[in-house]
Design goal:
Shape: globular
Distance between the termini: 60 Å
Number of strands: 10
Order of helices and strands: HEEEHEEHEHEEHEHHHHHHHHHE
Helix content: 40-55%
Length: 504
């Protein structure tokens, strides 16, 4: 009892410790939301009289499955530095009402539409600053878009490409290119050094500047320490390097002691507080089925976990799903559906049949668990880290995804967490699923590349909700409520974040 009370107190304290600085991060700056030809736009700028001279404008573009909240650390840091920071939701992303259309593999397809959208936002940003010269910041998928804009628009004075992969970079352009890569992004670090050597005509180490940013000829690559593809956006090193580069390129002076919004620790406190609070709350759930001690591993148990992992990527290899209007989201949904179906069939042959008791009470408990996650995890993340709101256009996607994901989570609950399942079976099952997804990406890297980008986020989701599911199962005696809750939470996250695509 004492341990549960202590966990609840510490969990609440961590939630507050994370939320207070996140809420106060915009103190001293103004935040305005508008739209440009239907594209949702957020403007961060210093809170000063309108008559005061406007600072340079910086346009900020997020990457695949990203949104404006993910780029808020950059926008807030720049606003505190005196810039007008303009971020927006790209076509098909976040709260943008328009889908992303065109072939994503060709420059004349989706890239052309994203480039045209960026051009409209740049024109809007110039109207705010009253100056032709602007800076661009792009992450991941958008790094290629801002590079192309920097090459085409002579008014772009600096380009900051974070986690960059772009074949468009030349020896001379875009002007004043800063490439920031997380130190744990092993595959992208050689690309950063390549574009640096391209300008210098020789190998140049990260951290060395080539050319002169003041003259428009600068180029630099930086490896932000101890961060990966998403964490690089919250890195204090990355934010300071970006700000200094834009200052040098746009002849701007950041006020002394201007803060950087490295909010990774605050978001981590929110997540940790949520999971600590979940343990004592799970203990308050009703017991639905008498408990049963875990059993031992058997060949049948291992086969029910391993066989679907091997068969699923082989069965789906080369298939053009094209059912759901979400970029690679339909392939991920198919992975869950086929994997879950195979696991259920394998379990039906090799394992004892499960007995479902108190189905109505299980649904009520599942709703309570999902509601807790939506209120205290998804809601803060939606405001401070990633767009997790279901717009009207995305609601049908949620229902379709939930139908595709439910067989997997029910089968996983039966095989890896049901009565008599051995200890560690849940971890083994989720590890097998992720390994199967990695194998699918390896079999078709060109089409499924974007799944590789979001793989670390999926790993975090499996860890967080797997732990929550364990506590709920131990208390209720059945894996069914946790399986239903996980279905709802995973389907919600995929429907809210994966890019919507359309024809045309």
């Amino acid at each position: 009892m004492i341990a549960r009370v202590l966990a609840a107190v510490v969990g609440l304290a961590l939630l507050l410790a994370g939320l207070v600085p996140l809420i106060g991060a915009t103190r001293g700056i103004t935040v305005e939301t508008t739209s440009v030809a239907g594209t949702p736009v957020t403007v961060h700028r210093p809170a000063k009289p309108r008559a005061a001279p406007a600072g340079p404008a910086i346009v900020i573009a997020h990457g695949f499955a990203g949104s404006r909240p993910l780029m808020a650390p950059i926008a807030i840091t720049l606003a505190h530095a005196g810039y007008i920071a303009v971020s927006y939701d790209l076509l098909g992303h976040g709260r943008n009402p328009y889908p992303l259309t065109g072939d994503i593999t060709t420059e004349a397809g989706a890239s052309a539409r994203l480039l045209a959208e960026l051009g409209r936002v740049i024109a809007f940003a110039r109207g705010l600053s009253g100056a032709e010269r602007v800076g661009l910041v792009g992450h991941s998928m958008a790094s290629d878009i801002v590079v192309r804009a920097g090459l085409a628009d002579p008014g772009v004075a600096a380009t900051v490409a974070i986690s960059m992969f772009s074949p468009a970079v030349t020896a001379a352009g875009p002007p004043n290119l800063l490439v920031i890569t997380g130190d744990w992004e092993g595959g992208l670090k050689p690309e950063a050094l390549r574009v640096l050597a391209l300008a210098a005509g020789r190998d140049v180490p990260a951290g060395e500047t080539v050319g002169d940013p003041g003259a428009g000829t600068g180029r630099r690559a930086v490896f932000a320490p101890s961060v990966e593809h998403v964490g690089v956006l919250f890195s204090a090193t990355a934010l300071r390097e970006m700000r200094a580069w834009l200052d040098a390129s746009l002849s701007h002076t950041t006020p002394p002691n201007a803060p950087v919004e490295a909010r990774g620790a605050a978001i981590g406190a929110v997540v940790l507080g949520w999971i600590l609070l979940a343990w004592p709350l799970a203990r308050a759930l009703p017991r639905l089925v008498p408990g049963r001690p875990p059993g031992g591993w058997s060949v049948a148990q291992a086969a029910a976990i391993v066989l679907p992992a091997i068969a699923t990527p082989l069965l789906l290899h080369g298939l053009d799903i094209g059912v759901l209007p979400v970029l690679v989201g339909d392939r991920l949904a198919a992975q869950f559906l086929v994997y879950g179906t195979l696991m259920a069939l394998t379990g039906a042959v090799l394992l004892p049949r499960p007995r479902i008791r108190a189905p109505l009470r299980a649904l009520v408990v599942a709703g309570a668990v999902a509601g807790y996650a939506l209120a205290l995890l998804y809601l803060p993340l939606d405001r401070f880290a990633a767009s997790l709101s279901l717009t009207e256009a995305r609601a049908p996607l949620f229902l379709a995804l939930a139908a595709a994901l439910l067989p997997y989570f029910l089968a996983d609950g039966w095989v890896a967490a049901g009565h008599g399942a051995p200890r560690g079976a849940g971890i083994a099952s989720r590890t097998a699923f992720l390994a199967s997804l990695i194998a699918a990406i390896a079999l078709d890297p060109e089409r499924l590349f974007f799944l590789l980008i979001i793989l670390p986020v999926m790993l975090i989701y499996f860890a967080l909700f797997g732990l929550l599911a364990t506590w709920v199962r131990h208390r209720t005696g059945t894996p069914v409520p946790a399986a239903i809750a996980n279905t709802l939470l995973f389907a919600w996250a995929i429907a809210a974040t994966f890019p919507r695509i359309g024809t045309g």
